Records
---
Amino acid sequence: MRALVAMSGGVDSSVAAALMIEQGWEVMGVTMKLWQGPQGEAPTAGCCTVADAEDARRVAARLDIPYYVWDYTEEFMSGVVGGFIDDYLTGRTPNPCVECNRTVKFSRLLAHAEALDYDVVVTGHYARITSDGGRYRLWRGIDSAKDQSYVLSMLGQDQLSRLRFPVGDLTKDQTRRIAGRLGLRTADKPDSQDICFVGQGDYRDFLAGQGVVPVQGPIIHRDGRLLGVHHGITNFTIGQRRGLGVAVGEPLYVTGIDPDSGVVTVGDRSDLGVHEVTVENLSWVDRPAAGPVLVQYRAHGQAVAAEVSVDGRTAVARFAEPQPAVARGQTLALYRDDEVVGGGIIADTA
Amino acid sequence: MEPFRHDIHGNPSGSHAASRRAKNALEDARDLIASLINAHPGEVVFTGGGSEADNLAIKGRAFSGGRRGAIVTSPTEHDAVLESAGFCGSFGCRITFAKVGADGLVDPAEVASHVTGGTAVVSIMLGNNETGVRAPLEETASAVKAAGPEAVVHTDAVQAYVSERVDVEALGVDLLSLAAHKFGGPKGVGLLYVRSETTLAPVVHGGGQELGRRSGTHNVAGIVGMAAAMAALEADRTSFRPRIEAERDAFEAMLAELAPDVVVTGAGVPRMVQTSHVRIPGVRNEMLLVRLDQAGLAASAASACQSGAATVSHVLEAMGMTPSVARECLRFSFGWSTAAGDGARAARMVAREAGALR
């Protein structure tokens, strides 16, 4: 039984590889090269840098498994970066890690693994897969602080049948201890917090570098007052408090971004409440689930109660309580307790 | 090389007996190497490999005499030439690229047309390390000299030397790079042939070894090894060349039979005998490499970038291939360890593994 482990150079995927070997799989490690600079230079800051590939290579050597680096820069550019820029230009807040999982990691990589006769693809995600009479179920990871099921909520039966998340049953501490025991150089490596193609800079610098030209527009309070001028809607996200450039003596939050008019609307905290969202691009882990569910609308956030009604690939989720800072473009992941039921992209808020 | 690991351990730059033994060995190696390439011993400059030799040729000429000389080269050169030229460019040297056809060849007259009074060096590699295409170097050198008698011609012969005879007079070049590991010698040692009267600014400054052209204590063991490898190569070349060519041709013939849509790069132009660069339509080279690796056949997808991913080759790009076409290309190399029948055997493996991916 052959397993292809996607190795980012971080401790989680290093240990995932080690665990698969311990379980008797024939393992191969692959690092996906996703991004390069304008002259083809490899990134040296943020995630997935040349140094990260070196770390992955050394871990693979230590584990005595074959290791390759594959170039997915084209797929990544079209599947992730293009959408990232488009989202900001249309007043949405993208989650590129979700799009990378959807269009590159759990589609192209899975297909390539199959072409090479690998039975499963393995990653270091903190999530759990169980199988129940031929049906696959996806759960939050044991370590709730590290749980990454949110970014995996687009997965379905076909993919889950060919995926493994070995560290989902561990806490981060346990993962690091295993890495230490195995003498892996990544045992103490800090987790990357950055978007891999933005690196240590800000997403605004990245957009500027990609030629996005900011267009000025008005900042208007919900009560109608014109408060000032902004320098591009791409500088804002719903719920944002800092960097507004205007002050009225009380905290102001971005409550709306209109790409057509260029208006950024602000209000106070109570104005942030969203009652319901429309979700598109809906997918289910197994079968559609309507009715009461728990929904999570941010990568790092609690799931909250909502009532969902489904219509094909779209749904409306009505929150039990109004929720602050719900942004279009983010993923809405649906749960029943700790089990992932499905997910989609927030298209509209009300 | 063995004696130099323990007995002959002196520093050839010293003056005592131990140093003299090392120095003698060094100079014996130099004499031998010079005779093999039809040069004078004083025209052989030892370096730490092929890349360093290229750096010395390009930067050494561009910055000689304190100027910012112009560089004429081709877009298919090895990175060591291109990056060196780029570096010179960042200091104000004018860099001009000759045109390369879809077949990978430069046109001697077109190269010569770029030569001006300010040209410090014209650099055209003898054989391309990716495609195997063998340049019309002799004609290019003549055309360049006719256009500007003061013009200096450099060739990176690192890939070509193993199969192509190097006679610096016959080639008509003023500078020539070699790397020992490409012809069975140790890694980390090479040389730059520098025709007398050709001025060079050093890249490595220091104690003035190599007549000031490349300072630093010599890698005596490495240099002795390089000389021995060159002597063995020359003795062997008359049998090595046709044998390797036969296996390469058998590989391409069998591949054409089993997978008729495979395209051989440079099929109609002069190529070095040890390289077969092919395009397999519909098959991503990264995937095929893994299958071949697991089946026991080592191939390469052009050059690797720092992270190890196969990059879209600048050589193929210069020849007009789009990235998606370039991603279907693989290079197969033939050498000393190639046995009779390996060519046909390899072709069958490639056809089978590629077939599984199509």
---
Amino acid sequence: MNSDRQTTDHWVVNEECCHAIAKKYGWPLERVYRDREAKGLLPVRCTYSGNCPFPSYGEKTNG
Amino acid sequence: MARLVIFKAAWPELRKADLQPTFPGGGSSDILSQRLDYSDGAPPRVGDRTLEFKDAGHLEPSSSRLSPWRVARVEEYVGNTGLESMDEVVVAHCEYSPLPEEENPWTQSTMGQITVENFGGDTEAFTHWRESQRVTA
């Protein structure tokens, strides 16, 4: 668990999106944080353990 | 594999850390954090540490480092009907064991690229956002 301390952040529309993405790609979801002062469309940050880019960009997914 | 990990600490350990987590109604909590793990990775082991985080601005990456909480005991509960939302629930009991500041630097998180996934699959919202990001000359 602690051998890989790299994390990846994705900003999303809501908290359930963090969970849906974790389940879809098989990622470990470490933290869900809502920026209450965010004025943009993506106010929630999902933090996943490891290197977790979306696969459509040609990079390997975290397993 | 869907695994829910709950990191807890005994009350004396929380007092040692001068930490008083609470539930939404204000009641005292002994839960430090939780992790929802859909990977095929191993559950936490004795000696592992949770992470602590430092937030930055909107659409900026956070930073993290090892927290002062070290796993001292692990209990695993496995679903037995096949109908559970989680295959496994792990309770990781932690003890307070702070690291020297100079040996525990912060690491910035990698930022994922924004795609339609960030909008829950809403292509219209994603397209609208993408259009708003275009810089006009």
---
Amino acid sequence: MKYFFFVCITIFIFLNAYQWNTCKHFFDMYYFSQYKVWLLLDDAIHNDSFVPFSIIRLFHNKPVFLLKGLFDAGILYWDIKFLFSFLTPIGTFGLAYGVFHSIRSLAQSKQRLPHMFIILVLFILPFAFMFHFFPPSSFYRVMTSPSSILYAFLYGWDFIFYPLLFYYHLITFFSVFICISIYGWSVIIVKHPSWWGVYSLILLGISLLWIFAVPSELGWVCQL
Amino acid sequence: MKLKALFFLVCILFLASSLRLYHVNTLPPGLYIDEAAIGVNAYSILTKGVDEYGVKYPLWFRSFGDYKQPVYIYLTSLSMLVLGKTELALRFPSVAFGCLTVSIVYLLAKEIMLLTLSKITIRSSTQIALIISYIFATSPWHIQFSRAGFENNVALFLFLLGGLFLTWAWHKQKPIFLTIGSFLLLLTLYTYHSYRITAPFALFVLLPLFFWKKPQLRKFMFLLVIFLFFLCVPFIQYAFSAEGIARFSQTTAFSTHTTKSIPQIVLEFILTFSRNFISFFSLRFLFSAGDGIGRHQMVGFAPLAHWQLVFLTPGVSMLFAKKPLNTYSCAFVIFFLMFLGVLPAAFALPSPHTLRSLLLLFPFCMVVGFGIYTLLPYCKKYRFLAIALVCIITYEFAFYTHYYFLHYANNNSLDWGGGYKQTVGVVTSLQSQYKHIAIRKDLGLSYVYFRFYNENLHPVYVDFDWKKPQQWNGEKSIIITSFLPAGDNHPSDKLIYQTYLPNINHDVFAQFWEI
């Protein structure tokens, strides 16, 4: 019976993820843009009138602003609205439990390698997505200066095969998240045989309701 | 141990007070419109005993289409009695209660831990409570609202103090603590709009719990409920009146269309409420961008500090660990407080909203505090990592204070009614030279600022197509407008003065035209 429910949950998560085929590309805020970071840095420095130069350099420098820019873009891939949209609440709960179980196992030094692999993949994947993938809007901004022509040449093939490449990245990205979500549920079913059934039914109910909200949530994330 | 804990608590309170009091009369730069309205009403109550509309000692203060709760306004009157009609007097209740909230957070966190964690020692609970109070004291979320006249800040203090008395009532089973705690919770109804939902819901859950689990208090509870009901009567009358519904209509997240069927309405309610509810736990809202409103946080800063994200997972892990502390009860209390913090805000727009969900800060501080405490034993083993983390925490705190005290006034002056004070000052200096002063409506609700900064001025508020009346011919008059670029329809050819915003571009805020 529990394996039947497990299969139902898996199919449900995959079916919901399929709704993302209407997404053409993510909005710009999901990609890291160093131009945006430099603009923010420039704006910050100009506000520092009559401030000692050492203080300005301490607080307004490229490493700090780069880290902040990376953090602001990366955190969007872990945003609950984003996860609920493509994994639904039931899938997000599985993902959260999978990550939680991996971190706890690492802390208890149990089966370190597989859990470390899970954490590393989840950490690196959003960065790979937001650095590697090159949306058309950014492409045209890059073409304005001669020094960026080489950059555009290297990534020009992204523009040519843009739609296919986006779906390829989307499937890769989501597959990893979905697999870890399913892994999380498999751990729940084994470790908590007494309560998993009730919680999965409640979450399944909430997820069914959430599907009605997905079309409007997708509009906040990507161009449809 | 007690003296050591007291010493650290005093240090934390000193830090909290410094962060909240330093230049509080000039930063935030100016008064936002609700603050000015509170100031006008408070001064009017102090001097004449009526509000700005002439109602004697009202329970609800009419203001810009809705009604304000009375507690903060009466507190501001008391503050003005001592400090005069100044920005400091206006903000002082919020600052003072904000500083006191830090000590209440320490006491309440400690009481919650002692009540719900059966295996915790007093020493450990004291250490964790000190960590939680430090996080709360240095939290951008609380600092932002403690430094201005926000009613929710006082309401938060009253709610947490009420919670503290209720924990004492639970522990010591004394009716006086239960009475004071319930009274303070009910007082929040009259302090800020959000608590119209939070306080009754909390009492609705807690009082039956007391009745069920504390048989010694059962007989007393009948009297208490009657007492609380009588305290609620004015609020109930107001809540269902046109005035009470006005605020709800302004901010509700639900469509007021009546043409939809009941299943459609129910589905819309569930989806809208759950979407709004979830938005408050969005990592982007908590750690990256906040709610986007300039008065509520600085651009690029979030309600919580970035470093706190690291400690969320260990904190949650500790809450669900059976060993060594058996923390399920504590987890229930924390998640209940989170639910209470988000519940009223989820009914309203915009969502998420840092001001309406200010109560959410306390349980988040507790989770982060637990996370820090969980990782403390590993500090010796991973010494360099611990030192790096402390450096990051210190740097981020310094980064925030640098931005707040040096950048915020320049970047966000418009959010704080920037320009109005200078405009009123210029009009005051010109009033002896000009018989008539007109203000065009593109300067928004400036009348509140005129009434606060100089109530002896009586300018005329005019529409965009206003023309100088004939009876003003031969008398020197000025009209004040917002910035009109060259080529626009200017009221006259004689521009005599301009006031500027303190931002980097020195944008023109108001122009004075002689007509």
